[in-house]
Amino acid sequence: MTDKKKDIYEEEIDATQPPAAEETPVVDEQPVAKLDALLSQLAEAHSKASEYKDGWQRSQAEFQNYKNRVARDNEMMYASMKGDIIKKVLPALDDLERALQNRPPDDAWASGIELIARKLQNILDAEGVKRIAAEGAAFDPNFHEAISHEPNADVESEHVIAVVQNGYMFGERVIRPALVRVAQ
Asked: Is the dihedral of CA 31, 32, 36, 39 positive or negative?
């Protein structure tokens, strides 16, 4: 055999034989352990981030609910205070209306009182205060307060005969029920 053929033949034999033990690559266990540690830290960081995000979202929702509750409470308190002030003004309007019912004809001061009563009524209307309609209506204890039950042939039973004092509502709230006489 020639030297060249001998070299090729030896290479083929070397390729068929398993490599020597010293030629097998040695895997370093340290990088794999570091990778596992880093992956576990990453998973822990993701779970903490998710937990913190959930807590933050919950806090945001609670704060928004708090703001809405405070705003609603403030509106209710404002409406209540406004209703209380209006309730204090109503007796003055009642007095003016009673004075107008008994006014002498053609007096200049009576016209002035009528003008004052209309202005006061317009202010109440502008603020959303409504007079409760009662005359001839069916008696409703939510809006009327009966001061007497009287027999009356002209008016149906349990209907209002006459209004003694007007009642008023502010929005859906009854500020003062109407004082009425009711038919039996």
From this structure: positive
Q: In this structure, are strands 173-176 and 144-150 parallel, antiparallel, or unpaired?
A: unpaired
3-state secondary structure 85-119: HHHHHHHHHHHHHHHHHCCCCCCHHHHHHHHHHHH
Which tens digit of pLDDT belongs to each residue from 108-143?
888 888 899 999 999 999 999 999 988 888 999 999
Phi/psi of residue 149, each to 5°? Answer: -115, 120
Question: In the sheet that 144-150 helps form, which strands lie side by side, from edge to edge?
Answer: 144-150, 178-183, 160-165
Contacts of residue 176, Cβ cutoff 8 Å, sequence gap at least 6: 87, 90, 165, 167, 168
- Local structure of residue 21 (DSSP, 8 states): G
pTM exceeds cut of 0.85:
no
Which two three-digit tokens encode residue 19?
Answer: 């490599």
- At 87-108, the pLDDT tens digits run 999 999 999 888 888 887 777 8
Taking a C-beta distance cutoff of 8 angstroms, is the pair 79, 173 a contact?
A: yes
